[in-house]
Amino acid sequence: MAKLTDTALAAAVDSLPGWVVRDEKLHREYQFPDFVHAFGFMATAAIAIEAMNHHPEWSNVWNRVVVDLTTHDAGGITAKDILLAEKLEELAKRLQ
Q1: Whole-angstrom Cα distance, residue 63 to residue 25?
Q2: Beta-carbon contacts of residue 63 (< 8 Å; ≥ 6 apart)
Q3: What is the mean pLDDT of residues 73-88?
Q4: What is the pLDDT of residues 12-67, one digit of tens each?
Q5: What is the pLDDT of residue 43?
Q6: Is 1 inside a domain boundary?
Q7: Residue 1 pLDDT more than 90?
Q8: How many structural domains is the chain composed of?
Q9: 10 and 4 Cβ atoms separated by less than 8 Å
Q10: What is the domain range of residue 25?
Q11: Which residues pair with 71 in a beta bridge?
C-alpha cells in the first residue's frame, strides 16, 4: 500500500472530524463519559482492528483514548489508516 500524497491526505483529514496529522501520523484523542466506555471502545474496536490486520498505536487513561495511525511498511499514512480511522469514528459514536 502506497503512502498518501499530501493532497489526498489533506482531503481525507478534512473528512474525519477530530483527526489531525501529528508527528507524521493520523492522530485523534477520544473522550468518553468514563473508563468503562473508553475501555468498551477499545475492546469493540479490537475486533475490527484484528479483522483488518492493521494495529494502531493507542493508549488509555481513565476516560480518554489516544490513537495514532500509520502504516509502517509504507513509511507514512495510507488509505488503510483512513479506513481504520473511519471505522473507529463509527464505533466511538455509539459510546460517546
Answers
A1: 22
A2: 31, 32, 33, 34, 35, 37, 38
A3: 96
A4: 999 999 999 999 999 999 999 999 999 999 999 999 999 999 999 999 999 999 99
A5: 97
A6: no
A7: no
A8: 1
A9: no
A10: 6-95
A11: 76
Q: Which residue type is seen at 94?
A: R
Polymer length in residues for the chain: 96
C-alpha cell recorded at residue 62: 481513565
Which of these, 45, 27, 24, lies nearest to 95 by C-alpha position? 45
pTM over 0.85: yes
Q: Which three cell numbers stand for residue 65?
A: 483514548
Sheet holding 64-69, edge to edge: 20-22, 25-31, 64-69, 57-61
**CA dist 92 → 1, 6, 24, 31 (Å):** 26, 27, 23, 9
Report the alpha-carbon distance of residue 69 to residue 28 in Å, rounded: 9
Asked whether the predicted pLDDT for residue 96 surpasses 80, the reply is no
Within a domain: residue 91? yes
Identify the CATH number of the domain in which residue 55 sits.
Answer: 3.30.1360.20
